[in-house]
Design brief:
This protein has 155 residues and is mainly alpha-helical. It is built from four helices and three strands; from the N terminus they run H-E-E-E-H-H-H. The protein has one domain. It is 52% helix and 4% strand.
Length: 155
């Protein structure tokens, strides 16, 4: 009896990073809908700066904000399927978060333009996320790991 070997290449480090980032976003999105973990849950709005709900009592959230986290997480898990797509997710996604950071700093917390909503803690978290995602993309590249055979070709 011969052992069957998988012909599937191992995931590249960039794919694992995209999976991890995707899971973090999914967890944040789910936690944003859990009363207690999200303080002032009853004041959560669909969108707008008038939502007083805060994830972990720190990050201002709304239904829209939580849904964005869930979608970002699902996109990350989906794009982790190939090294090139995972690299793009981390690079482009990180850039989007840096743009969101600038946007958050530019609009006032009580402005109608603050529809996500974002507070100062969100702004600085977006800055850190953007930098980390871009750093992961650049450090890990989009190369596939090379296959090595310990005993030569087996048929």
């Amino acid at each position: 009896m011969t052992a069957h070997r998988s012909h599937r290449a191992p995931a590249a480090p960039v794919q694992r990073a995209a999976q991890l980032v995707g899971i973090v976003f999914l967890v944040a999105g789910v936690l944003g809908f859990i009363p207690g973990i999200t303080t002032d849950y009853g004041s959560m709005t669909i969108a707008s700066h008038e939502s007083d709900a805060e994830l972990l009592g720190l990050f201002q959230v709304s239904v829209l904000h939580n849904l964005v986290h869930l979608v970002y997480g699902l996109v990350g898990l989906t794009l982790a399927g190939t090294a090139a797509a995972a690299h793009s997710y981390l690079l482009v996604g990180g850039a989007v978060y840096l743009v969101l950071w600038v946007y958050g700093l530019s609009v006032g917390p009580d402005s109608d333009a603050n529809f996500v909503p974002l507070n100062s803690a969100d702004d600085w978290l977006h800055f850190a996320l953007g930098l980390v995602m871009i750093a992961l993309a650049l450090a890990l590249g989009h190369r596939r790991p090379t296959r090595t055979s310990g005993t030569g070709a087996q048929r």
